[in-house]
Specification:
Length: 103
């Protein structure tokens, strides 16, 4: 009986620690600080914050602070930020320096 209570307390402690760890990870990049790439036509490059490599941007890609986009010739892109849209035409680039959205 005592062993079962100790085991139950230990499991409760583990669950509590796991909740703290995962809640910290979840708050690292809250959805209110993400701007999805809502429209892509042509070749639009994406580079994640802190990286030097570029890749093809994909529709609905969540963009956050530090990310960069570049629209090649003949390309279009649209970023959704809150209730606003940022539209990119060919030969334009954008860097998400600080993404702060109203709550």
């Amino acid at each position: 009986m005592r062993a079962q209570r100790l085991l139950l307390r230990f499991l409760n402690l583990l669950v509590g620690i796991a909740m703290l760890v995962f809640s910290g990870l979840a708050s690292a990049d809250p959805p209110s600080r993400v701007a999805p790439l809502g429209y892509v036509v042509g070749s639009v490059g994406f580079s994640p914050g802190g990286e030097n490599d570029w890749m093809q941007a994909t529709l609905n890609r969540p963009l956050t602070t530090g990310d960069r986009l570049w629209a090649e010739a003949g390309s279009l892109a649209e970023i959704e930020i809150g209730g606003a849209m940022i539209r990119m035409n060919a030969g334009t680039g954008i860097a998400m320096l600080t993404l702060i959205l109203p709550h």
